[in-house]
Design brief:
With about 325 residues, this protein is α+β, with helices and mostly antiparallel strands. The chain has helices spanning about 165-180, 220-230, 240-250, 260-265, and strands at about 10, 15, 60-65, 75-85, 90-100, 120-125, 130, 140-145, 195, 200, 205-210, 215, 275, 300, 310. It has a four-stranded antiparallel beta sheet with strand order 1-5-4-3, with no helix packed on it. The protein is elongated and about 60 Å long.
Length: about 325
């Protein structure tokens, strides 16, 4: 995408960290969503990042205001009302733009004339980004995020508890997990090194730090994925894990709820997805592992028992043995 000077585009924190794996994403063209036509009547007037919201879950508002750092510039933030816990929703401002040009009130059509807006870049709900180049004189609009994500396998009942999955259901879900992580057509991750306590090490990590995520996902083979699910004590329905996984993999975009409701359940952090708050290490699979110290990703450590030697592992580790 073309960008103007003195403009900025931001999104909720979603960092790809690969220590031992370079995953690739396959991007395919898909029809764009219907253009955004304007805010709902109950949208707030100013940015509200992190505050409690009472509008419908998933409602997105485009908030325009004067840029406090650049005189004469206008800023726009896209903010959505998403789950921060199973009992509370908060505003999450995940994307935006600042520049000297005024954005059209409604989303322009891709390829429409942008005369009068040359050099302007505009964000529109839900995740559309439009730029106007004086060189070609038309709007270029693109949907952000991954467009190669598929639904979890229908053969695995979405309401079934993770602890109740059959071997066949675990295998089918884990085949979907590896495709979701790497993208369709790419080989699944190889079996990683496993330490003496049964935790994966040096896998790398896909991390989302914004509150709809606050989670990490390591790339592991389908066999290790199945082993992790088999060891887990997490009684959440598999749909909540699928939701959290896709949310992390799609730049912290809730799919549809995000990770909070899954990760707040006892024993669920470490079941494929590991909780992350940016300040502390991770918890182990099924609630059985110790948290890493130091809060780095990777590089958290777990101390040995009874003063024994420590195993050093990623804070993104999950238990597979």
């Amino acid at each position: 995408m073309n960008r103007i000077d003195h403009s900025r585009k931001f999104a909720g924190v979603a960092i790809l960290l690969f220590a031992a794996c370079n995953a690739q994403m396959l991007v395919e063209e898909e029809p764009a969503d219907e253009p955004w036509a304007g805010n709902a009547a109950d949208c707030p007037a100013t940015p509200v990042e992190g505050t409690v919201c009472t509008v419908a879950e998933g409602q997105v508002c485009a908030l325009d205001y004067e840029d406090m750092y650049n005189a004469g510039y206008r800023s726009r933030s896209l903010c959505g009302c998403f789950e921060a816990s199973s009992s509370e929703r908060r505003w999450y401002c995940y994307m935006g733009e600042s520049g000297p040009g005024e954005c059209p009130a409604t989303e322009p059509s891709n390829g429409a004339s942008c005369y009068g807006h040359y050099g302007t870049s505009c964000a529109y709900p839900e995740r559309s980004y439009c730029t106007c180049s004086g060189e070609d004189g038309v709007w270029s609009c693109e949907e952000q995020g991954r467009d190669d994500l598929t639904a979890p396998p229908s053969s695995v009942p979405e309401g079934k508890a993770i602890t109740a999955l059959s071997d066949e259901e675990r295998a089918e879900w884990c085949d979907w997990y590896t495709t979701t992580f790497n993208g369709p057509g790419y080989p699944e991750p190889a079996d990683s090194v496993v330490d003496s306590r049964g935790f994966t090490v040096n896998t790398g990590c896909n991390l989302g730090g914004a509150f709809p995520c606050q989670a990490m996902v390591p790339p592991v083979s389908s066999a290790y994925c199945e082993a992790n699910l088999r060891l887990s004590s997490c009684e959440a329905p598999i749909a909540e894990l699928s939701d959290c996984l896709v949310t992390v993999m799609d730049s912290c975009w809730p799919s549809p709820h995000g990770c909070a409701r899954f990760l707040e359940r006892p024993g669920c952090s470490g079941t494929i997805v590991v909780s992350y708050d940016g300040t502390s290490g991770a918890t182990g699979a099924g609630g059985t592992g110790a948290g890493g110290t130091g809060g780095s990703v990777p590089g958290g450590t777990t101390g040995g028992t009874n003063g024994g030697p420590s195993d050093v592992r990623d804070s993104c580790s999950i238990r597979v043995r």
